[in-house]
Specification:
This protein is an alpha/beta fold. The chain has one domain: Glutaredoxin (3-Layer(aba) Sandwich), CATH 3.40.30. 30% of the residues lie in helices and 24% in strands. The chain has 4 helices and 7 strands.
């Protein structure tokens, strides 16, 4: 009989859980970085704060990983992220990642080359808009500006 008294409470808790509340599951990402790089850890932290599930892998084979995934020279970033079938180079903002994963364009990935000051995970003020490039089989083109 005591069980019947707690049933409404248990049912309410179950329905309030993310699985029943219609919450979108986090996008799973793997971030490959140089073992000594701290800003990559900050970018992973930023992505987690924006709803991404990020696994960080420290490796000395980062150039090989970039080549294996078709990252063009000149578009290389601080770290390489694999997410949803795409390659993401550098400190790309979460808004652009969400756009990429929602639109699903026919490209290999996106890049914010280098380590721009003020980008997510990098210290300092943002001094200019970030130009994020799309790359793949077609010529590189601007994918987003933030």
């Amino acid at each position: 009989m005591r069980f019947l008294n707690t049933l409404p409470l248990l049912l309410g808790l179950a329905l309030a859980s993310p699985a029943f509340a219609g919450a979108t599951p986090a996008h799973k990402a793997t971030l490959y970085k140089n073992p000594q790089c701290g800003c990559c850890e900050e970018h992973a932290k930023y992505l987690r704060q924006n709803g991404f599930e990020v696994k960080v892998v420290a490796t000395h084979d980062l150039p090989l990983i970039k080549r294996q995934h078709g990252v063009p020279e000149g578009l290389e970033g601080c770290h390489t992220i694999l997410i949803g079938g795409y390659v993401v180079e550098g400190h790309v903002p979460a808004n652009t990642l969400n756009k990429l994963l929602a639109e699903r364009p026919a490209i290999k990935g996106v890049s914010l080359p280098g380590m721009p000051m003020g980008s997510p995970g990098m210290s300092g003020p943002k001094t200019e808009p970030f130009t994020i490039y799309g790359f793949g089989d077609e010529p590189t083109e601007v994918y987003a500006v933030e």
